[in-house]
Amino acid sequence: MSLADPASVPSVAPVAEGPALASYLAQHDATTPFHEPRWCRAIEQGCGHGYHLLGATDKSGALVGYLPLTHVRSKLFGDALVSSAFAVGGGILADDAPTADALADAAWGLAHRLGVGSVELRGGAAPGADWARDDATYAGFIGDLAEDDAAQLLAIPRKQRAEVRKSLDGMLTVGSGGDREEGAAHYAVYAESVRNLGTPVFPRKLFSAVLNAFGEDADILTIYEESKPVASVLSLYHRGTVMPYWGGGTAAARSLRANERLYYELMLHARRRGCTRFDFGRSKLGTGAYAYKKNWGFEPTPLTYYARSAEGQGPRSINPLDARYRLQVAAWKKLPLRLANRIGPLIARGLG
Known about the structure:
This protein is of the alpha+beta class. The protein folds into 2 domains: 6-135 and 304-315, 3-Layer(aba) Sandwich (Aminopeptidase); 146-275, Aminopeptidase. Helices cover 38% and strands 26% of the residues. The protein has 12 helices and 15 strands. It has helices at 19-27, 37-47, 97-114, 149-155, 158-169, 180-197, 204-214, 253-256, 258-272, 288-295, 326-333, 337-348; strands at 11-14, 51-57, 63-72, 80-83, 93-94, 118-122, 132-134, 138-144, 172-177, 218-225, 228-238, 241-249, 277-284, 300-302, 305-309. Strands 1, 2, 3, 4, 5, 6, 7 and 15 form an 8-stranded mixed sheet that branches. It has a 7-stranded mixed sheet with strand order 9-10-11-12-13-8-14, with helices on both faces. Strand 3 (63-72) and strand 4 form a beta hairpin. Helix 2 (37-47) runs antiparallel to helix 7 and helix 5 (158-169) packs across helix 9 (258-272). The longest helix is centred in the N-terminal third of the chain and has 18 residues, at 97-114. This is FemAB family PEP-CTERM system-associated protein. Pfam families: Acetyltransf_6.
């Protein structure tokens, strides 16, 4: 805890959605889409996890800090309060260190009252000495978009650019939008992609809920071979940045170079929407996804996460690369896709 004068420590209590919270989120430099109440609502609608919005106010009653927490419940992986659940970012928004400490203490107190053994903060202001800090697991990849299509292609490093050029010479077509048809195409591709990686797929209604909640700030872009979707991504748009969030490709995508076409087309699509930045998301250090994003010319930036667990209880382990899941991952890759899609959401909704 900070040694600040108690009189200067803000009051923390549940905060309602409304103009005051919207104004605070709009003016804070560190706000992400995952701080917004609509993200929390989408997670609740898609996976059934309730949420709590904590606000810190000064003596005048003005908001000086904020923390959304989703109560993720899972018989397999344990319960946790997470900011933000199913997200790569989130964490404490605070105007100063005492406010960050107050919100962290309030989050831990809420966990105690709910009987939850751990709290996870993905990014945001540092919560204090009682929290474990991890800045050596994940990196983010963000870069500028070029001024036109030709410049965007030339901005890609030579070897990766050659792969993109080959994809442009193929018989691939591009679709985009957020309607039911695009949603079905995206889910079919994404479900096959994660099955092939050995992980369970999220419920389809989670993607629908995010698209509905974010409206014009989210869409799907899909690459087709003839009429068959082979690569697809659901993206979020925030403050001039496009965030390809849930994406993947079928087994055929690699030979077709459909993933290369997908992300290049998304760069062009996002610029036409007025974006100037491309957030390629997070990847674990040392993985193929980490190397792939570097091949596109993106430089990694460490992401800092925080966690606190009850005495004698470790943090949740939800990382599919954890050695303890090696056999399960190998077995999942062999499941028939229809079976994986039926039982996967029952497991994956607890991985937030």
